[in-house]
Amino acid sequence: MQMTRNDDNGNAIDISKEIVYKIEVAANRYDLLCIEGIAAAFKAYIGLGHAPRYTIKNQSEKLIEVIVKPETAVVRPFVVACVLRNIHFDVKSYNSFIDLQDKLHMNICRRRTLASMGTHDLDKFASD
Length: 128
Hints:
Layout: E1 4-6, E2 12-14, H1 35-45, H2 70-75, H3 91-106
Antiparallel strand pairs: 1-2
């Protein structure tokens, strides 16, 4: 059986003679839907790292207000927002992030019928 994978340039590479590992992801482990999450889990499992700990910081900064227009509220009556700071993407990490977002749309968002999410650069539209 012929198996291929795409390299960074989109070219198909024959991997038929290579050892290929299959990883099954439990339904509640959305962190394992990207290579970065799998790598972090493996590192923690074999003792080379620790599971990440995320915290919510209530900073004394001015709160950011999200305004939902009435015509949007008809389609999306509830909105949740979060701001991530000090995130630096290169092309590869950005593409991986967007791929993860698409997988989340297909899974927990049920093909965007229950929810949808967007990623935006806050510096491009936030005002004082």
